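Protocol step 4 of 5: obtain the predicted structure for the target chain.
Materials: sequence only (see below). No template structures provided, no constraints applied. The aim of this step is simply to have a reference model before the mutagenesis design in step 5. Sequence pasted as it appears in the construct record:
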Amino acid sequence: MHQSVSNLAWALRSAPLMLSHPKSPYKVLDEGWFLRNYLLHQDWLYALDADPEPLLEFLKTPHKLPLGKRFEQLIEFWLRESPHYTLMSNNVQLLDQKRTVGEMDFLFKENASGTFYHLEVACKFYLGYKNSKAWDHWIGPNGNDNLALKMDKLNLQLAIASTEVGKTYFDQQRWALPEPALLMKGMFFHHYTTLHKAKAPVQSAANYTSGWWVKADELDHFFAGESLWTILPKSDWLSPFESHFNELTIYKHYEMKRLCLDLLAEYNLALCVVQLYPSKLGFKEGSRGFVVPSSWPKKR
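Step 4 output (structure tokens):
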């Protein structure tokens, strides 16, 4: 019933994006791990939905956060409040002669097994270019990054505990070296003409969450029928849309086409759009996609 709780539940139960980096020995939290943890925390989530004030208070910030930082906040709340984990530290900066050489997102212990983790967290949305499996063809909505760059960066971040600077930190804390693990959520989007023959990125998880994308000059072939639509602000990209969460304007298909063209002409930024279906409480998300400038993937 509350979007912040829905976002937290999505962070736990949705399938991961990737299985592994072929050049790295680190652990990737897989779909089975997330399913077990969601079931483990299901009653906790329902209780939080009945009284979301602790989560809402935790998420309060004086400034609007980027989506990735908001996602990290959700993971931090979960690790802090869960009876099944102990959060040892987070956002740990590693220094070499007063120079920051890296940061670790989360250090936590699984209470039942005693396993000590160094967890790196990522929430990303990538569009598949040329229906390719290659990581560098999976590009951010505004052309500013790609899956290859992100995976290489995560690979370096997850290796930092085993560097001399990392080992020194854990020696000082009198902690054993942790097991590096990746928690990566988000969505992959396929061009709408390739949905029936879509190629997934190499090493992607089997049941990753997916959507579609379309260019501005293809909208004549896309928006049709009697469907209803809305545009999601970036802050609402996490869990599936429900109209009772907020009061976003709902558009008919012909209104949506005109609006997308006007917004792209004015801002030249990709638009995250959702097709809506009736639900008991109003409307719910049917499918999700991006409308991008005709010049995409050129950077804006």
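Step 4 remarks: The chain is about 30% helix and 30% strand. The longest helix spans residues 31-50.
Proceed to step 5.
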